[in-house]
Request: fold
Amino acid sequence: MNQKLILAPMATLSHEAFRRCVAKFGGCDEYFNEMINAGSLIHQGPFEKYYLTSGSESEKMVWQLTGSRSDYMKTATQILAELPGIGVDINMGCSAPQIACTGAGIAWMTKPIAETQAMVKEVKSALENSSKDGKTPPRLSVKLRLGGEDFTEKGFFDFTDMLISEGVQSLTLHPRTQKEKLARRLPRYEYVEKLALRYPNIPVNLNGEIRDKNSLEFALKKAPHAAGVMIGREAAKRPWIFAKLKGELPTEKVDMQQLALDFIDDIEKFQPKEFFKTRLQRFFYYFCQNFDFANYFKVQMLNSENNEDARKRIKEYFKKQSEERFKTL
Reply:
């Protein structure tokens, strides 16, 4: 396929341990981290350094930033611009109430456009000013939705025209409005195509409901000019999804027990103890869906008391279900 493959920013999932899990199967073209709160980063919260960790593929990192204040967004961008990677992404797509109600995420699409424009200008300026010795400044991108429930095509394109006029260099669209639920309606992929044709010199990525080759082909029939495809939850379920879409799956069977145990090891290396439980629960909620007794395995992992207990439960599951340990992908 010609499109880039991109790992989505997912809270409690898109961290270094998970990226390493994906990388075991060849990785992808870009890794978005779990969104960084601008205010927390500026005030050096105790856990912020863990959000800034990047590993052997640090050159593929995109640092996604969320916040409600332009001044915080600018200062946080100055920090992120010093890190290795492709650039900074402004989160304008998160519709979770706890994010939107603070004025962050999709709230930037529903504020007066002049206010959002001023923020984008500040972030772009910070990136431009970070460039030294004639080097190309880090890329500025935006991940967005179609907007609020008052969505109109004109309003949407007025908004994206503003983004491009302020120097945004790449867009990723999850083509649903703020309150459209995942299961109730397919994404409106045709708007990815409309964006791509409207801005032929700007990469426009497609996000939403890509689970396999069939769903990918369906989406790309609607948006053949998409520059990239971003995948989130399906990568948590099947970290090899990118290899599968590229036709580069390993020929040998994969040791699923070892994959799970390695993930716990990496959580301990790259996350604080306070995050161990939530990060393991989030990953295994999806990963356990690969197995015959998915609900049983998932409950076992969600109820594990600590990392050692989680390791014990993994080994016990595969001892009982030995035929599932080595999997042909």
Observations:
- The chain is about 45% helix and 15% strand.
